[in-house]
Q: What sequence folds into this?
């Protein structure tokens, strides 16, 4: 890995598997699609401050089960698929805008990583479709400010 720590690799792999589990309709899970490797390469291109924000999001997700249960030893990457889905669903439907935006950001990043896999693109009939470059996506992400996410809700 170029950028992700071992702990972050476990978190990203778990998030990827939550969105794209084994046995999904495409037949290609997050691991086989190379989601973690894509995210690692993507983060390596980010400016340090932007990379730090994404890493903070990964940490928040990794420690979400600990915060939700008051059991400081629980981690997202150690949860079963169903529990990971429930945790992310709870954030996605939360009344707290920041949580909803965090899940939306995760879905966008993981989705981009997933469809960037040649095998997935072929399976979905998207080979040759221009998804844009990581640099183009980074320019859009750089425009987002935490205050704009409504974190104070």
A:
């Amino acid at each position: 890995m170029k950028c992700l720590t071992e702990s972050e690799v476990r978190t990203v792999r778990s998030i990827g598997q939550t969105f794209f589990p084994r046995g999904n309709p495409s037949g290609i899970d997050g691991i086989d699609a190379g989601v973690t490797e894509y995210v690692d390469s993507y983060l390596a291109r980010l400016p340090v401050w932007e990379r730090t924000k994404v890493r903070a999001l990964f940490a928040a997700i990794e420690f979400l089960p600990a915060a939700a249960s008051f059991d400081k030893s629980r981690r997202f990457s150690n949860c079963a698929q169903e529990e990971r889905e429930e945790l992310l669903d709870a954030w996605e439907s939360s009344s707290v805008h920041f949580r909803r935006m965090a899940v939306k950001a995760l879905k966008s990043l993981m989705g981009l990583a997933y469809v960037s896999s040649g095998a997935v693109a072929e399976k979905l009939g998207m080979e040759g479709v221009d998804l844009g470059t990581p640099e183009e996506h980074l320019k859009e992400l750089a425009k987002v400010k935490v205050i704009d996410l409504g974190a104070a809700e």
Q: What stands out?
A: The radius of gyration is 15 Å.
